[in-house]
Amino acid sequence: MQLNGADETLEASVPPQTDPTEESIDLDAEAFVSPQDDSSHSESLVDKLNDQMMESVMISDSPNSEEEDVVPIDSLLEQNEEEEPKTPDDADTEERIEDVRNKDVSAAEPEEASGALFKEENEGEKIVQVDDKRETVAPDDPKPEAPKTQESALEMDSDSTPKDEAVPVCTIFSQGVQLKAQALIPDGFQPTLVKSPSFTIGNTETPNKLVPQVCQPSPSLSKFFTDSSAVNPASDFFDSFTTSTSFVSISNPNAESPKAAAPPESPLVSAPTAAGTYFTPVATKPQVAPAEPMNKLQAVFPSGDDPFGSALVTSDLDKRRDAWLPSEDTRRVLISVATQQVSPVQIDREQLAMPGLKFDNLQGDAVKDLMQRFLGDQAAMKRQVLSANSVEQNFLGLKRLISTKNWRAAVDLTGRLLTAHGQGYGKSGQPTNHTTDSLQLWFVRLALLVKLSLFQNAELEFEPFGNLDHPDLYYEYYPTVYPGRRGSMVPFSMRVLHAELPQYLQKPQETLDRLHRIKSVCQKILSNLQEGLAEDGSMMNLTQDNRLASIQLWRSRLSRVMYSMANCLLMMKDYMLAVETYHSIIEYEPEQRVQLLSGIGRIFLQIGDIRTAEKYFQDVEKGCQSKGKTANEDTSVLMNRAFVYLSQNNYADAHTCFSSVLELDPKNPVANNNAAVCLLYLGRLKESLGQLESLVHKDPALYLHESVLFNLTTMYELESSRSTQKKQALLEAVACREGDSFNVQCLKLV
Amino acid sequence: MQVKGQSSAADKMEVNQAKQEHLLALKVMRLTKPTLFTNMPVTCEDRDLPGDLFVRLMKDDPSTVKGAETLILGEMLTLPQNFGNIFLGETFSSYISVHNDSNQIVKDILVKADLQTSSQRLNLSASNSAVSELKPECCIDDVIHHEVKEIGTHILVCAVSYTTQMGEKLYFRKFFKFQVLKPLDVKTKFYNAETDEVFLEAQIQNITTSPMFMEKVSLEPSMMYNVTELNSVSSDNESESTFGKMSYLQPLDTRQYLYCLKPKPEFAEKAGVIKGVTVIGKLDIVWKTNLGERGRLQTSQLQRMAPGYGDVRLSLELIPDTVSLEEPFDITCKITNCSERTMDLELEMCNTRSVHWCGVSGRQLGKLSPNASLSIPLTLLSSVQGLQSISGLRLTDTFLKRTYEYDDIAQVCVVCPYTSPES
């Protein structure tokens, strides 16, 4: 033993290992890898025993082996040595592990020994040896992996793209306004033309001279126009971005009136500024656009009634919404553009955002594929989901795809619309003009990719945008197109999305950096407003209402950013900072106090700190009492109590609590699901299953959710060997309701 | 290895031959704690292209927190998604379900669940009585619990025997293997104080992959010691942990706990008792992880080598911490005979640059038998300000003519009392 002062290692007391002599179950390497089950179910079924099911190790079922019950685990222990990656051997030169090692080693026999043992027992018994394939799975991050599709999508070769796109072309502008189309037909189109990689010099700063600003020819676009000569696609094309009846204006919600099937001549476009938004991109985009239609379209907006009044309203809204503080470099470029010292042509390409699609269609429907595989082609035929082809080729169609949860199709549609805008596949790195709409399309596309967990794809397509601070992403860069408009074209939500993305790719630090950048801009804008300045710090006079509205908007944005930070910290398992951040959100969102405090309590439960969790839950209860409700009448209080019981291993009382939530709110999906989970831990599998199953069938809208289905399929697997059939029944239920974005992994069919 | 491979192939064949349709299916699932579902908020503002669509989608999603949809940690419980890790001291819980897959009634079903470790075999079944009959599509459920007390390979052996309608007795078994890992790494270090006190520093490292809430880390002293835990600072009746608000240990994080052990008076009096290797006590550690998953470990008895004090030990029983410059103060020394023989001692006091002893140097202390001790009050003063070390005591055993020197016995802070008359 050491003298005082020396470090010693102690080891949790491991009882002396005695040699078990009675039985020899040697566990077989192969049997372990593909667990078999002596009760002779087909292997495929056994294979479907999912991860959370324990792996069946071996099969030694001869009745005469029954007596011999003790496994010579000693022979297995040698692998334990390798099993020790958890002990950071390198870290210390002290004698720490020694102790443990010695014991292990003494207990473990060298490999030959087990071989010898095996031979001894070989006389007729089935002997299976365990190969210690480290089956202990790290419990963290059960994140679903991004589906394979992304890789294949990325392999698309660029040549094939235009061809592929040729198909959708016909449909892309289906509901065009025929009248105008007719008018335009004579013009025809020369899919030829202009090759200047950036704007022509003809584009000198004369706002009125709407000579089409010319940019880079876009093969796919020209294809677009030539291929479908039946309807005049050009006008349709404009429609999709301008005044089509079904067009939904983003920047001017007042203009949103899909029901008004007015011809484009009618002044749908309310304000010159807004109109500018829609017109000029057309002018700048398809360089092939001839002058006549432009003039025609131009004729539209002088006739708008009271353009100035609505312009003021929208511009206030826009100003508030678009405000942003560019970096110093960007600001300098923007000022020089505004003062006409530099024309955009002269600006270094390096400084521009030049996005383009990075992969082709995602289209695919995993639900259908699964149906084909398990239920046959006929059943699969019945599966009807909207695709990019079956909706209007505009924002309205896009919204329809999103709301029906056909996000893959929606991504495809954004791709088409962006292609029409000249930012299609392979266009990355080529100068382009941005518009409010093109950036909104990008935002929707990237947001959906994130929602689909296609993070790499999103990252790839985000990349050309840099940190969303290129000068051409600001309205000031296009003084002719957006006269007088200032601020960022990039929607704030896109900045948040951009910041959040890296955390899903194991780069949470990057996420925090970006979020802090956004946060500091929000704070700067808020302090500008509070000092009586405009958002961007200029000396503009704001009306009081305006100022208050703006402060409210920016406070809500700030709290959104803080939510993202807290979420990111939570994912990083930096619980203390996460808790602090969540707590600070209460100041901005007082009406979310109960949810936030309960959420913090749950974080502490996750860590295992039940006492602190209870403290937060008590705060919630106090809050409820002060509102005059008794604790038992409040679902969040009951829910919190249930979680505490759960953490005390008291599943019976937890179940009671979840059930009393259901008495108050019988449709509460969380309480229903959680009550069922408690039943399982109480050993009442059938009841639990019955409860979940009936819920899914009674109210599929609420219960066809990943988490519920996952629980249900897990229980199916536990219940019987016929889980596959039952899962297939679920698949059918899913097929009737869910869109192409459904995550089929939770069905655990494959 | 090759030999193994070949023979296992042979095993397999045999297994296939032995395969036989069973009417019952046995399924086992480890019941770790459920987890809370986290969702992934993607939001937009109402003036963005999707309008309120994203918000509505999130509101309709049952797994989001209503009213605070951007909060990722939801309330929906999901069942464990994989076997996970199991650590020494945790409780292994498992659901065992035996389901009648057939369309006939099965009789006299006996389900047995045993856990085989390297050293023993434990029966975990709640009941050992047979179920008289099981109808088709019905199942027998059992939830077993076992606190894991050994590291290494464990095998859960589930055996099912039953009788068919035809009266045929059938039997099958399934084996489920898992590894029990070590959750904590504990290192200790002892520090001996000048008094009889011993300080124990314990470094506890979380070597699992998940954060760990340390619910209790306490030292259970052996019968010779009393223990004081030094892991919280108390002020105004509120004690605050020295670890601050961090109540948990991240993976691979280490924490240091400090304990002060004082020998109980009956042992302290006879200093000779605590000599050589002594048992100090053991650490009792309770931790919790996800949703209250609990683990508990005790270390083996911690042992410490008591410091050697030579033949004669001189320790201080009483000494002021602060004294005034050039003013005499009293200390009490305790002299213990740690040798096996009787000593006749003489005390000499030598002044140092700052310490001046008062009284007669070279006085006889008389005979001191083994393990006996005596206390002597001494007076001294310091002529220098600041932290001064008390040195210069010499004990001579006149029997053996051996002198023991005691320097730097303790320190006192010497201050000048006249510096600020106005205060």
TrEMBL record, chain A:
Location of region: Disordered: 1-164
One example of a Gene Ontology biological process annotation: vesicle-mediated transport
GO (cellular component) term, any one: Golgi apparatus
Superkingdom, taxonomy of origin: Eukaryota
Transmembrane segments: none
UniProt-annotated location(s): Endoplasmic reticulum-Golgi intermediate compartment; Nucleus
Biased amino acid composition, Acidic residues: 20-29, 79-97
Record's compositionally biased regions (Basic and acidic residues): 38-50, 118-148
Span of the signal peptide: none
Keyword terms: ER-Golgi transport, Nucleus, Phosphoprotein, Repeat, TPR repeat, Transport
Chief location category: endoplasmic reticulum
TPR repeat intervals: 559-592, 635-668
Function per UniProt: Component of the TRAPP complex, which is involved in endoplasmic reticulum to Golgi apparatus trafficking at a very early stage. Also plays a role in chromosome congression, kinetochore assembly and stability and controls the recruitment of CENPE to the kinetochores.
Subunit structure of this chain's protein: Component of the multisubunit TRAPP (transport protein particle) complex, which includes at least TRAPPC2, TRAPPC2L, TRAPPC3, TRAPPC3L, TRAPPC4, TRAPPC5, TRAPPC8, TRAPPC9, TRAPPC10, TRAPPC11 and TRAPPC12. Interacts with CENPE.
Protein name: Trafficking protein particle complex subunit 12
TrEMBL record, chain B:
Residue ranges annotated for the Trafficking protein particle complex subunit 13 middle domain, each copy included: 184-307
Short name of any one Pfam family annotated for the protein: TRAPPC13_M
GO CC aspect terms: TRAPPIII protein complex
Residues in Trafficking protein particle complex subunit 13 N-terminal domain copies: 22-180
Domain Trafficking protein particle complex subunit 13 C-terminal: 320-414
Subunit structure: Part of the multisubunit TRAPP (transport protein particle) complex.
Family designation: Belongs to the TRAPPC13 family.
Protein name according to UniProt: Trafficking protein particle complex subunit 13
Biological source species: Cyprinus carpio carpio
Source species taxonomy: Eukaryota, Metazoa, Chordata, Craniata, Vertebrata
